Amino acid sequence: MYRITVISVHILIILFAAMIGIAGIYNPSASDPNRTFETWIAAILIFDVFVILSAYILLNVKKGWLFALFVFSLLGLFYVLPAISLFVEGL
């Protein structure tokens, strides 16, 4: 049961991040003509790598409190990901 929960929650996090990332690129509003999306795509890919590493670690450790900590920290990282991406683009 723990294994199924870890895998399903991490798959949902990856799908959620991918949908938000794709919606940010293909939105119908007028965008800045000089803006590129390489930074945003790289940020989403790095986030997905963190999610995969988290799932791998949790499947080997099998601690419930660590699962909750990793999921909340991944969701927090996803919340600040646009700010990090915009900061990197501004450099």
Tell me about this structure.
The protein has 91 residues and is mostly helical. It has one domain. The chain is built from three helices and no strands. α1 packs antiparallel against α2 and α1 runs parallel beside α3. The longest helix has 27 residues. The chain is elongated and about 50 Å long. The relative contact order is 0.16. The model has no long low-confidence stretch (mean pLDDT 80).
Task: Name the features.
single chain; elongated; mainly alpha; 91 residues
Q: What is the overall silhouette? A: elongated
Could you tell me how far the N terminus lies from the C terminus, measured between alpha carbons in angstroms? 45 Å
The ordered string of helix (H) and strand (E) elements is HHH
Taking all residues together, what is the mean pLDDT? 80
Number of helices: 3
> Which structural category do the helix and sheet elements fall into?
mainly alpha
Largest sheet: none
Number of strands: 0
How many structural domains can be distinguished in the coordinates? 1
Contiguous runs where pLDDT drops below 50 for at least 5 residues: none
Helix content: over 70%
Q: What is the radius of gyration?
A: 15 Å
Percent range for β-strand residues: under 5%
